[in-house]
Amino acid sequence: MDDKVIVDLLGQVGNLFTSSLELKETIDFMLKSASDLVNSDAATVFLVDEDGQGLSAIATFPFAENVSKVAHFKFGEGIVGWAAQKRQAVAVTDATKDSRFKTLNMAYAPRSCLVMPLESPRRLVGTLTIARREVQPFTTVEQALMQIIANQASISIENARLYNTQKQQLGEIAVQKRELEVANAQINEISRLKSEFLANMSHELRTPLNAILGFSEILKDNLVELTDGQRHECMENIHASGKHLLELVNDVLDLSKIEAGRMELQYERFLVANAVRDVYNVIRALSDRREIQLDFSIDPEDLDVRADKSKFKQVLYNLLSNAIKFTERGGRVWVKSRQEHDNLAVEVGDTGIGIPREHQLRIFDEFYQVEHSSNRQVEGTGLGLSLTRHLLQLHGGWINVTSDAGKGSVFTFHIPLGGMEAATRHQNRILLVEDNESNRELAKMVLLGNGFDVDIAVSGSEGLHKAWSTLYDLVLMDVKLPDMDGLTVTRMLKADPKTAATPVIALTANAMKGDEQAALAAGCSGYIAKPIEVAGFVRQVFTFLEARTK
Ligand code: ADP
Fold it and tell me: Which residue owns the Cα nearest ligand 1 atom 21?
């Protein structure tokens, strides 16, 4: 090879080694340029193992498929290990006559060979070996050329390694950053709701208190001449405001009791018609005042249910008072009760202002109120629906809403007719979060066929909101979802006290050990591999549910 070609090649070597950050590209190029510059039968690169205990072959040229056969050397073992340990280039005239040589397979036995340690300024990164099948020792010029390549390549390999590590760390940081953002958003939201609650609470307390103080002052100090009728009205106002304050305090206490797990239900069997009539008698004054038509229907009329009667009435009262509160004068409000399988279904509907779609899930959150232009004239704390949902969940039930802004709303709740125990015995409610249609349909068919009650969500955010608005016995969570991944959704469910206790089972196509651990680390109670095997799938679902009720 003439000098110009050599200089050109060395120039190229320098350029590529400084420009490439890809390990494989660097190494392949090093091997190719080594064999272009120096005539040889095989060239191999060994890199120091991660544990620093030995060297493994990672590429050979031209017999790339032989790399696994060239294998591994410990430091000090064989000529490769020897050169690495001594950090010294070794030129061997005939390997078969060198006692340091470890021949793994005689079919590939080299004769003359050259081993160069690859050293970056920081550390030893590996070795470069070139070999000939014939005894034809490497000349001093060839050794010098190889030394240049080895020096350049070492730095380049080290850079590529550092770059890869950095890339990996950046990836991990990006994941952590996303998780932090989600957690942060939750904290901000909680803190916003808290401030909003305090502002609302003080407003809510102040309004009736002002009425009480104002009217009682008039009575106490005889500030104005009052007729008997006016005096009576003052006292009525004080009484009503006092009652309102009590309700407010009770709502807050109820909620904190439920959240602390101290709310106990007093189960009894009663006629739905009786409870509805009791609520009707209380609420009629409200609807009459606003000229709202109030209709009730119960099918069948003698339908009975096993539940906590006073909590049941509280739920009905909350829904009805909202329906009346948010319906214009002259509108219509109705209650329809019916039996649906083993459940009592109660629908509370109105022809009122309705709830825009984007608020429909949030209204069940504590203190959440939809901003209306006329909002402040409508009283309330934003606690009623949250309390309602909690009370229904305690009964093993759930609630949802359908609404068209401007046309009205329908809230429907279900509770098991036979009480909570009957609910867990009969039907388990499962939320299936799966974006792939055929997987979804298969799992749904299998679950329905086995008597489960199945709700579907096709994206992470839909799953999240469904799980937040309804109490499920089990959530089956696909890990790969289009908007946010299933494990992030799981972490968010586990971070929320409302859903922390709901077991989540990951459904994933990557049935590898690492995924199982990632799922468990995210808070999943278990893991089912896809594609599902029908009999095993049902057995696993039953097992998870049984474990939950123990
Ligand atoms: P409150 O009624 O005390 O504000 P709730 O938790 O009962 O609190 O309701 C939360 C919010 O949901 C209400 O502020 C209102 O914006 C909306 N909402 C509830 N029920 C209805 C309804 N029937 N029609 C329209 N909006 C409703």
Answer: 322
The answer to whether residues 503 and 474 touch, using CB atoms and an 8 Å cutoff, is: yes
Tokens 């909350």: give the residue: 318
**Token output for 323:** 């329906």
As a whole number of angstroms, the distance between CA 528 and CA 265 comes to 35
What is d(CA 541, CA 315) in angstroms, rounded to the nearest whole number? 32
- CB neighbourhood size of 34 (10 A): 26
Q: Which residues pair with 339 in a beta bridge?
A: 344
Length of the chain: 550
Rounded distance between C-alpha atoms, residue 359 and residue 377, angstroms: 20
User: Would you state the structure tokens that stand for residue 69, as one six-digit string?
Assistant: 């056969």
For residue 323, the ligand 1 atom closest to its alpha carbon is: 23
| Residue 375 structure tokens | 């909002």
Ligand 1 close to Cβ of residue 367 (< 6 A): no
pLDDT tens for residues 312-360? 999 999 999 999 999 999 999 999 999 988 889 999 999 999 999 888 8
CA 348 to ligand 1 center in whole angstroms:
13
Enter the DSSP assignment of 532.
Answer: P
Domains and CATH numbers, the chain: 3-169 (3.30.450.40), 182-259 (1.10.287.130), 267-418 (3.30.565.10), 427-549 (3.40.50.2300)
377 backbone φψ class: left, alpha, beta (φ>0; ψ -120 to 50): alpha
Q: In sequence order, which residues have a C-beta less than 8 Å from that of residue 352 and are 6 or more positions away? A: 323, 326, 327, 328, 331, 333, 408, 409
In angstroms, the CA 538 to CA 451 distance is: 11
CA–CA gap between residue 428 and residue 424 (Å, rounded): 6
Q: What is the DSSP string of 160-215?
A: HHHHHHHHHHHHHHHHHHHHHHHHHHHHHHHHHHHHHHHHHHHHHHHHHHHHHHHH
The secondary structure of 115-173 as a DSSP string is EEEEE-SS-EEEEEEEE-SS--PPPHHHHHHHHHHHHHHHHHHHHHHHHHHHHHHHHHH
**Residue 155, ligand 1, Cβ within 6 A:** no
The predicted model scores a pTM of 0.48
Rounded CA separation 307/534 (Å):
36
229-281 confidence digits (pLDDT tens) = 999 988 988 988 888 788 778 888 888 777 777 788 889 999 999 999 989 88
d(CA 161, CA 333): 70
Q: Whose Cα sits closest to atom 20 in ligand 1?
A: 322
- Ligand 1, atom nearest to 368 Cα: 10
